[in-house]
Design brief:
CATH class: Alpha Beta
Strand order of the largest sheet: 1-4-5-6-7-8-11-12
Structural class: alpha/beta
Number of strands: 12
Number of domains: 1
CATH architecture: Alpha-Beta Barrel
Number of helices: 12
Shape: globular
Strand content: 15-25%
Distance between the termini: 35 Å
Order of helices and strands: HHEEEHEHEHEHEHHEEEHEHEHH
Length: about 270
């Protein structure tokens, strides 16, 4: 594991250990909204800061208004960064976004460096419909525990890969019937991140290079380094059915219009 990932894993484990939150049955029964991906889709991200890109939003920004703009643009789901130290996230951001888009039935994903099942329960109790997990951060036993917890509570999982080993691992998991069935329901997505979290640099060729290696049993998501319609068109042509877009939307004057334009471009190949 890279130093950055190890730092994030350690910080995440410390946060989980320090939390004394308990989860009532009522909280864990909150509505989960399905991820509808009949065509090329966008997962639109809300994050205040990126370690590689710096500040992306002023503190105290209107998260609800931004989330609603994403919905108007046609986002299939909204990703919310909750990591506090390097991304200026907070669980309250998840609360705000869930509340803003629940009436539209749009699923919200908690994006963080999750290492404990309790953090998945934490997300569910706050209304999340999905979570991101990072293949390089979890050994086999931990991965099984995290996936099983998420699926038990009907959450979707975006399992993120950075290299060939991660992607092979994700494909291997799909050999298990229970996980393959989740993938058929768009509950188990496989992501490829073009940003190398060992260096924080974007490899502009990774998404194209990994296209032929994508597991065909799951919906695959292109992550990072996507800024406009041409990028959406490219990743759709390479076999990705979803693009996760963050920085470009955070910096766009009209993020809803950018989502709509990227969807139109991606769907020319869907």
């Amino acid at each position: 594991m890279s130093d950055f990932l190890q730092e994030m894993a350690n910080d995440s484990a410390a946060r989980a250990a320090a939390s004394s939150e308990s989860f009532s049955d009522h909280a864990l029964d909150r509505t989960v909204f399905p991820l509808c991906l009949d065509r090329f889709g966008i997962i639109a991200e809300i994050k205040n800061r990126s370690p590689a890109e710096g500040e992306l939003a002023a503190p105290g920004g209107d998260l609800a208004a931004r989330a609603q703009a994403y919905v108007r643009g046609g986002a299939a789901a909204i990703s919310v960064l909750t990591e506090p130290e390097r991304f200026a996230g907070d669980l309250s951001h998840l609360d705000a976004v869930v509340d803003a888009v629940a009436a539209d039935g749009i699923p919200v994903m908690r994006k963080d460096f999750l290492v404990k099942p309790a953090q998945i329960l934490e997300a569910k109790a706050r209304g999340a419909s999905g979570v991101l997990l990072i293949a390089a951060m979890l050994d086999k036993a931990a991965m099984a525990s995290m996936l099983d917890c998420a699926f038990e509570h009907d959450l979707f999982v975006l399992l993120e890969s950075f290299d060939e080993t991660d992607l092979e691992y994700s494909a291997h998991l799909l050999e298990r019937l229970a996980y393959r069935e989740q993938a058929q329901r768009n509950k188990f997505l496989v992501g490829v991140n073009s940003r190398n979290l060992r260096s924080l640099a974007v490899d502009p060729n990774r998404l194209r290079r990994f296209g032929p290696r994508l597991p065909r049993r799951a919906t695959c998501v292109a992550e990072s380094g996507l800024y406009g319609p041409d990028d959406a068109q490219d990743v759709a042509a390479w076999g990705y059915r979803v693009a996760l877009v963050g920085t470009a939307l955070m910096r766009a004057a009209e993020p809803g219009s950018l989502i709509a334009d990227m969807l139109a471009a991606g769907r020319t190949h869907a």
